[in-house]
Amino acid sequence: MTPKLPIPKPTKFEKLPPEIRHQIYTHLFCHKPAPIPLGPGILEPRFGLPGKDDVRNEQPTFYTAIFRVNKSISRDALRFAYSANSFQLTADLSCFFRLSQTALASIKSLTVFNNCWIEGRPSTKVWDILNQKCSSLETLAVQPSSHLLWQALPHLKEYVHSFPQGQPKPRLIIDVYVWDRHFSFDTAEHEYQRALQELNGRTGADGTQGFMRPREIAIRLPKQVKQIDFVLDVNGGGVQALTEFLQSSSDLPLVKTTEPLPCKNYRVGSRVRHCYVWLE
pTM for this structure? Predict the structure, then answer.
């Protein structure tokens, strides 16, 4: 008679090696290059003619039932889900405000838009959370309208100089995408004049009406992040104004580069792209 072999006890999920658990999580949570909206509505500009394989057309999939197994697994799965994906804030910021401490502390890549600088409590709360609770944030993609960035750009020096001596500073990148002249909403000459005035702070009292002041926009940027990408859509006049302004400014060491940068292409299509890196 063949003796019965003992039935091995099942291994607890929490006892599996991290690499095995993470392989399982990749099948449960979306892991795509395109940012996942944290709320209804998408604010990200989309230009060009994306193909059938464009990841921006794919809907994110989160199988969240595992979050309800127990506290230990929920915490472990949340950390992976929010660290392995990139996210973007939408018009409705309330979803971001409701994220748990674990989720906020796990986010590594986030994109923000104009609505995060509208005067009022919601915008202030966004930047308080980013500075105080998003401790793992590595890349912040800032996609404002041109008038906001042009006016805030000169104040980046105050942000950079606010770091204590010896504290690592994030890499600052200005990522400019140039409109084709047939799709531009303004003439190159008018854009040039307007951008040059805004860069030099000559916009009048209504320059940022309804938004935070340019200095506040700059100094509220988080300090723990490793890289900040300012992504901007302009026409040729805007690029000309930026080039002239940087050439005449000794305290804004933004240098145009053709080197491959550690940041993705934020726009669909083959638009002309100019990159400037803060080198100090």
Answer: 0.86
